[in-house]
Automatic annotation (TrEMBL):
Protein name: DUF554 domain-containing protein
Transmembrane region(s): 27-48, 60-81, 108-127, 147-170, 190-209, 216-236
Keywords per UniProt: Membrane, Transmembrane, Transmembrane helix
InterPro entries documented for this protein: DUF554
Amino acid sequence: MNVAAVLVGSVLGVLIGHRLQHRTRDLVTDALGLVTLLIAISSALTVGDDVLSDAVGDSAPVLIVLGAMLIGGITGSLLRIEQRLEGFGAWMQHRFSRGDSESTFVEGFVSASMVFCVGPLTFLGALSDGLGRGADQLLLKSVLDGFASIAFAASLGWGVAASAVVVLVIQGLMTAVGAVLGDILPDAHVTALGATGGLLLVGVALRLLKIKQIAVADLLPALIVAPLLVQLLVVIRN
């Protein structure tokens, strides 16, 4: 779906993208931000699932998410994940932007690939799909990428369509990782990971709605910390 959205959006961008008004694009982004918020709340509320409470106790699930966000956020901030990702994208664009017509294809390919594959929704959506928790986040990302590809292709041309290959490889690998984790991690650990991911999606929604530019990428280590905290409490309780 994501690859198809990028391809269709690229074709529309090359053919008619320049006709879309800026006001229309902003309205669509706001609508997608609201839908992202709805999906985020649904995911975050799984913190109250019985499978997690039975494993760690009734009062621990929220504390696990809180601890994961704090520890993950501090870790990501110290590692400067968001800054490094943005810096890598800027370096790639500078590396291939030579100002001539021949580099337009490559610039479109690199720029679109970075936007489609570096954002937190890439990791959250693909992992959720691989874990068997549904593809709704990935479908939402497909819509976002579809409209983004229209805007990119309107100015950078067919190189944007080529980025669909990168989307297929990166998200395919992340989905495979999620599938492996789904086979290894117990249900309580997967639930904690999903609830933490839902909270990160709230940050994505706030960015789409232009309410606050939360450094969501810096919070990504929380997805690793949450299952570890569950395991720690399970060991303590036993």
